[in-house]
Fold this sequence. Notes:
This protein is of the alpha+beta class and 415 residues long. 31% of the residues lie in helices and 20% in strands.
Amino acid sequence: ALVKPLGAPAGKPETFVEVPFELGEKRLYPDGLIRVSRGSRSWTALVEVKTGTNALTTEQVENYLDIAREQKFDAVVTISNEIPPMAGQHPTKIDKRKLRTVALHHLPWSQVLAVAVLQKEFRGVADPDQAWILGELIRYLEHNRSGALEFSDMGESWTQVRDAVTSGTLRGTDKGIADVVARFDALLRFAGLSLGRRLGTEAMPVLTRKELADPSIRASALAQSLVETGQLSGAIRVPDTVGDLVVTADLRAKQVTFHVDVGAPAQGRPTTRVNWLARQLKNAPDGVRVESFVARSRASSAAELLGKIREDPTCLVTDPTRELRSFRVAQSATMGSKRGRGRGAFIDSVLDGIDTFYAEVLGDVKAWSAAPPRLRQEADVIPEPLPASSLSSTDISSQDGPETQRPQASPETAP
């Protein structure tokens, strides 16, 4: 589950601890080595692990890349509590020339824990001994003294950037913006891993193809939004849900908003479509905000709290002649300001808000689908009598009922 996405074949894995290697005049001991073999093909990777607040260093990672190149290994895998803004990125700056023949992968401890829980609790492990061992690994990683930490810090620049946004003095050239933007995306990725671990699925941040190919595009757009509007925004995609869970942190208003866009039914009157959504939000509080969007319009046509919508569905219908196209369901919470974890912390306000919004809104709403067409029974067909002059044929058809008789030819027209 961990190494196959990194390029390893679906074969038998072998693991080794602190294998010694010579690099020039130095003798180095990587934390581990993994080899996966299937038939004549094998995949080998060196492993470097950090726990607690220890960070990976450029020199150490580049040394292991050099060893892997000399030994003709396939990859170097690092594991630490550092969470890159997006999957596929590495938290350490590396000379890209060293990656020509050797791949470099990074696994946050939170991802290792999420994969372990997903494998044991939701996919299952057939061998009871292996299941017990995996359970002990999960128990160990979840302990606060294991060194496998959760995302717990928005960085040294958080307070400075937050205060500059509040006072309206933030400028695009300020040095702390890049760090805050990267840590916000890292927080979304951690939130997806945490949510997916409890749901038994993979919840991942939503990124465009261009952003995946060039992470600087996402970082630049987020930095510009922070300077111009004071907002940080991103989305998490949970499989089989009605839409993406969008998180918007407004540092000026000191609020975090969570919303999902839901397509309206393609049939029925406008109020019928509003009631369809309200019935699904049975567990949502009255303070949830719902906006309605009509066809051929980008702006919302109406917005109201769910409590009032339950009493009067017509409050979301401004023009009964225009077709309701979609809804936006949003929930807001007070934004924490502290950079760390705990009461009044920004990280906790985002994580708690995501959990609440999924439990009360997103987890209950299903996409609309039309009912399948029903076969028509002959007994359901009630024929309408037609004047004889309008009949162009005397043959019985599927439109005729069982009591319909074939017209008899009159004696005058009979041959």
